[in-house]
Specification:
The protein is α+β, with helices and mostly antiparallel strands. It has one domain (2-37, 76-85, 92-154): Alpha-D-Glucose-1,6-Bisphosphate, Chain A, domain 4, CATH 3.30.530.20. 26% of the residues lie in helices and 42% in strands. The protein is built from three helices and seven strands. It has helices at residues 16-24, 121-128, 131-154; strands at residues 2-12, 43-47, 56-60, 67-76, 80-89, 93-104, 107-118. Strands 1-7-6-5-4-3-2 form a seven-stranded antiparallel beta sheet. Strand 3 (56-60) and strand 4 form a beta hairpin. The longest helix has 24 residues, at 131-154. The model has no long low-confidence stretch (mean pLDDT 90).
């Protein structure tokens, strides 16, 4: 069984307290998530509390967007958010995802990490696609958009 980890970090020129709520509430992801623009007609459903532990989000979209659910399994303001990310299409996968927020000179270092196992169709897919390159580029775009969304909110 092969496992993978995708990790990207960016320093966002804002306090963790200003950035954290944009990740801790799935309703806010439309402002910065790199996947929100993949399918403008994507259907979304929110469940559980609005934010924090237990908050959930379900999506279903076109072939590129796929479908799945995300649920916050741990929320420790303003330092850590752990998400149970489960894809149901184009193939089934469980990818634990973590965001950490660490104060650094000039702002907050936000680190976005997703782990998973390549099995079944995912294993075949992984032979041809580099998950780090493919998803990492999305993470980089997402962190840049998160920085812009925080600037717009606090600006």
């Amino acid at each position: 069984m092969s496992t993978f980890e995708v990790r990207r970090s960016a320093v966002i020129p804002a306090a963790a307290e200003d950035i954290f709520p944009l990740v801790n509430d799935f309703h806010e992801w439309t402002k910065w998530s790199p996947w929100e623009v993949v399918d403008p007609g994507m259907s979304r459903r929110y469940f559980g509390p609005d934010a924090g532990t237990g908050a959930g989000y379900e999506w279903s979209g076109n072939r590129r967007a796929g479908s799945g659910t995300m649920e916050i399994v741990e929320s420790l303001p303003p330092s850590t958010i752990r998400i149970r990310l489960q894809f149901t299409r184009p193939f089934k996968a469980l990818n634990p995802t973590t965001f950490t927020f660490a104060p650094v000179p000039g702002g907050t270092e936000v680190t976005w990490v997703m782990t998973g196992e390549n099995k079944g169709l995912g294993r075949v897919f992984a032979l041809f696609m580099n998950m780090d390159k493919m998803v990492g580029t999305d993470f980089e775009r997402g962190l840049a958009s998160l920085s812009a969304a925080v600037a717009a909110k606090t600006g």
